[in-house]
Amino acid sequence: MSMGLTRYGKAALMLAVICSPLQARRLPAQIPAPEPEEHIPAMPDRLPPRALEQVAAYTAENSDGHGFVTAKNLAWSQPYVKVSFEAVPGQDLSAYYPLIEATAKEWIPKGTRFALSFRNDDGTYRTWTRGDQWPAGVIRVAFEHKGSWSLVGKQAIGRDVRPGEATMNLDLGPVLKPVSGSPAPYFAGVDRLTVLHEFGHALGLAHEHYHGQCQADLKFDADPGYVQTVVPGTESAPQFKPDAQGRSPGIMRAMAGSPNFWDPRTIRLNYDWNAYSRDTGLRMENVLRASQGGAAQDAGFVQSSVIDRSSVMLYSIPSFLLKSGKQSQCRFVAMPGIVSLSPMDRQAFASLYPPSE
Fold first, then answer.
1. Which residues contact 31 (CB under 8 A, 6 or more apart)?
2. Residue 234 domain flag
3. CATH at 183
4. How many CB atoms lie within 10 A of CB 20?
5. How far from chain centre, in Å, is Cα 57?
6. In a domain, 204, yes or no
7. What is the mean pLDDT of residues 193-198?
8. Does residue 14 form part of some domain?
9. Structural domain tally of the chain?
10. In this model, does residue 9 exceed pLDDT 70?
C-alpha cells in the first residue's frame, strides 16, 4: 500500500529499418519520442481513523520506557498466525482466496520458523463476520472499496481491536467486479502489488519511503507560482500535474485530487514519517530494514544506509513530486512487467523471522 522505469515498467522496442540509399535520403530526421507523461497513481494505505486509534493504543501499552516499539515487539513471535477473509452476505469472493494466499506466502521462504495459516483443518478457507465475538483469525481481511490498509504486525492484537473488526483491507477495485468472472486479471497489475504491500505491513514492515533519504527529497508543497493544471479528461475529478513552466503541484495538492482524494491528515500519515510518528506514537527509526550487518537490533527499528528502490513497501512517486526529479533515489525501479519482492524485502523479513537452525 517512482523512476527511470515506471512501476509497471517500460519496454524499449528497437525496430531495424532496411532501405535503399534513395529511401534513406527521403526519411525525415528522427525525433526522439517523448517519455510518457507521469500521472498520480492510486495509492494504498488509506488507514481509517478507527484503525489509527488502535495503532496508537497498542503503542502506548507496549512501548518500552523510552517510547520505542522494537522490531521484536511488532513481529509475530508465535510459529504461525491465522488469516481469515470476511464473509460478506450475498457476495462470493472465494475465487480470489487462493490468489491472495499464494501472494502473501511469497514473503515466507522455506525453512522459516513462521507461517501464515489461511485454512481450517478440513482445507476450507477461514472466514470471519462483523458479528464475531471471538476472533476467527488474527489477521482479518476485508474487501471494502475505500482504499487498502493494514495494521502493522502485532498491532492487530491490540486490546482495542475487536473480534468483528478488520485488521486489513484489500481494495482490489474493478478486479472484484464481477466476482463471477475469471480471477486471472489479478496477476496482471497493481492488485498483486497491493497484496504484497499490505501483508508486508501485517508482518511488521513499515513504508520504505519513511527512509530518511527519501523523506528529505519529498516535495510536499507546490512550487512557488504554480498554476493549477489539470490532466485533460479528468476535469470532473481533477488530477493535477506540473504547469506549463514545469512547476510542481506538490504532494499535498496532488494527493488531494484524483484518484486518491485524500484529506491532509491522510496524506501526511502515508508520506511524512514525522506525522506518522506523532499520530501513532511509534518513536522508532525511520524504517524497518536490516543493518548492513544483516541482523535487526533489539533496541529498535533500523534502516539500511541506502533506500531500497525495488521494495514493494515503496510508493510509486512521480518525479514531479520529488526535489531531485528523475534523478531521485526515491523513485521506484522494477523489472518491466514484474511485481515481486526485492532482495532487501526478503532480507528485512529474514531479520524478523530467521530461518530454522
1. none
2. no
3. 3.40.390
4. 8
5. 23
6. yes
7. 91
8. no
9. 1
10. no
